[in-house]
C-alpha cells in the first residue's frame, strides 16, 4: 500500500447534495453531506491514507472569491507537505471549470490537484459521485501526475481546458478542441497527452482580502447589443471587462466603441468568444497594438479570471 497521503478538500456541490427522493436528480439541495461522509461512502477509500478537510459546503453557483482564496491557500499549504502525494477537491459542476482555471493559474502545482464533481446527488438511485471520487483519488496517487486536472465520468481533463457542456447528462464535460488528457479505467490511467504545466501567478498574488480584489465583470455580445452596459460598468468603477463576443470574438460597432472608451478610461478589456469551441483568432493585417486584446483559447469566464489575476499583480503578470 502506498503510504503517501491524499488530502480531500470538500467545497460542496451536487456530489454532496441530497434530495427527498432517490428518483430526484434535479430538485435536490447541493452541499448537504460533509467531505468525510463522501469518503466514507466509498469503501475502497478506507484502505488508503486520506485526510479530509471541509473548506466550504456550498452550491457552486455561489462560489465566491473568498472561497477561492481559502481553497487555493489550503491547496498551497498541503502541497508543501512532503508526505502529501496530491489533493482532491470535491466541487459543484456549475463553476468547476472556473475554479479549475483559477487554481491552475494561481498554483500550477508540480503535484496533482484533482477536482471532481457529480451530476447526480449523493441520494440518487445511481449516483455518479462515488466512482468519480474513487477515480480522482487514483489520479491524485498516480506516479508522475501533476498539475490541476478534473476527473469526471472516467475522463481526465486539463484544468485550463475543462468546459461544462451539458446541463443534465452524466457526461456533461469536455475540453473543447483539446480533448481529454487521459482516461481512468479501473484505477489505471491511459494517457493521451502530458500532464498540465504552466506559469503560475503564485499564491502570494491572492493574499489580499478578497473584498479588495479588482472588480471584473463579464458581458456577452448579441444581436441588438449596445454600449449601455459597458458605460454603466465604467461609471460604477469597474476595473476589468471580459467580453464574450460573437463568432470569432466579433463585437458590434456600438459595443466595441464603448469598450474602447472603457479601455481609454483605464479599464482592462479581454475579448473571448461565446462559441463553445475554438480560439479567437486575430485576422492577418490587424494591428494587435490597436485591436482590443484577444483572449485566445480562453472561455469568457476564464478571461474574467485572467483579468482578475492580472489586476491583482498590476502590470507584472506572467504571459
Ligand atoms: C453545483 O454546481 O454546486 C450544483 C450543480 C452540480 O454540482 O451539478
Short description:
This protein is of the alpha/beta class. It is 25% helix and 21% strand. The protein is built from 7 helices and 13 strands.
Instruction: Identify the bound ligands.
Output: succinic acid
Total E-strand runs:
13
Helix content: 25-40%
Helical/strand content category: alpha/beta
What sequence of helices (H) and strands (E) makes up the elements? EHEHEHEHEEEEEEEHEHEH
Largest sheet: 8 strands, mixed
Number of helices: 7
Termini separation: 41 Å
Low-confidence parts, pLDDT < 50 over ≥5 residues?
Answer: 315-319
Strand content: 15-25%
- Overall mean pLDDT score? 95
Provide the spatial order of strands within the biggest beta sheet.
2-1-3-4-5-6-9-10
Shape descriptor reads globular
Using the CA coordinates, give the radius of gyration.
20 Å
Q: Which short descriptors sum up this protein?
A:
21% strand, eight-stranded mixed beta sheet, three-stranded parallel beta sheet, binds succinic acid, 25% helix, 7 helices, alpha/beta, 319 residues
Task: Record the SSE blueprint.
Elements lengths: L4 E8 L22 H6 L9 E9 L6 H15 L4 E7 L5 H12 L4 E5 L12 H13 L5 E6 L2 E4 L4 E2 L8 E2 L7 E4 L2 E4 L24 E5 L7 H8 L4 E6 L7 H12 L3 E6 L26 H14 L6
The structure holds succinic acid.
The site of succinic acid (SIN) has 12 residues, from loops.
Amino acid at each position: 500500500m502506498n503510504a503517501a497521503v491524499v488530502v480531500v478538500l470538500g467545497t460542496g456541490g451536487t456530489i454532496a447534495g441530497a434530495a427527498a427522493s432517490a428518483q430526484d436528480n434535479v430538485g435536490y439541495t447541493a452541499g448537504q453531506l460533509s467531505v468525510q461522509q463522501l469518503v466514507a461512502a466509498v469503501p475502497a477509500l478506507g484502505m488508503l491514507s486520506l485526510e479530509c478537510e471541509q473548506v466550504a459546503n456550498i452550491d457552486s453557483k455561489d462560489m465566491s472569491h473568498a472561497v477561492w482564496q481559502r481553497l487555493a491557500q489550503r491547496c498551497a499549504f498541503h502541497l508543501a507537505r512532503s508526505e502529501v502525494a496530491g489533493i482532491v477537491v470535491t466541487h459543484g459542476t456549475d463553476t468547476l471549470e472556473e475554479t479549475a482555471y483559477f487554481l491552475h493559474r494561481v498554483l500550477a502545482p508540480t503535484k496533482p490537484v484533482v477536482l471532481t464533481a457529480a451530476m447526480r446527488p449523493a441520494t440518487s438511485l445511481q449516483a455518479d459521485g462515488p466512482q468519480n471520487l474513487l477515480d480522482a483519488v487514483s489520479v491524485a496517487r498516480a506516479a508522475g501526475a501533476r498539475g490541476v486536472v478534473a476527473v469526471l465520468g472516467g475522463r481526465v481533463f486539463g484544468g485550463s481546458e475543462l468546459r461544462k457542456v451539458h446541463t443534465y447528462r452524466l457526461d456533461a464535460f469536455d475540453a473543447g478542441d483539446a480533448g481529454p488528457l487521459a482516461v481512468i479505467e479501473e484505477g489505471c490511467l491511459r494517457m493521451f497527452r502530458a500532464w498540465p504545466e504552466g506559469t503560475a501567478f503564485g499564491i502570494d498574488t491572492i493574499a489580499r482580502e478578497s473584498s479588495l480584489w479588482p472588480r471584473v465583470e463579464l458581458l456577452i455580445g448579441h444581436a441588438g447589443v449596445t454600449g449601455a452596459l459597458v458605460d454603466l460598468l465604467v461609471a460604477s468603477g469597474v476595473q476589468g471587462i471580459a467580453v464574450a463576443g460573437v463568432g470569432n470574438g466579433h463585437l458590434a460597432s456600438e459595443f466595441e466603441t464603448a469598450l474602447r472608451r472603457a479601455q481609454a478610461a483605464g479599464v482592462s478589456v479581454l475579448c473571448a468568444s461565446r462559441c463553445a469551441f475554438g480560439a479567437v483568432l486575430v485576422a492577418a493585417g490587424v494591428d494587435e497594438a490597436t485591436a482590443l486584446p484577444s483572449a485566445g483559447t480562453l472561455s469568457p469566464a476564464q478571461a474574467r479570471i485572467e483579468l482578475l489575476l492580472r489586476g491583482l499583480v498590476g502590470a507584472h503578470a506572467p504571459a
